[in-house]
Amino acid sequence: VSKILIFLILISMTFSSIMAFDITSFESIDNWIVLQDNATWIGWTNHSGFPVCQTRANLPYPMKRISNIIEDIENYPNVFKRITTAKKLDDNIAYLMLDMPFPFSGRDYIIQFVKDKSETDWVFSFKAVIHVDTPPNERFVRLINASGTWLIKPISNSETAVTYTWNGELLGDFPSWALPKAWKTQGNEIIEWLGEALNE
Question: Of 38, 72, 80, 115, which is the most exposed, with the fewest CB atoms less than 10 Å away?
Answer without folding.
Answer: 38
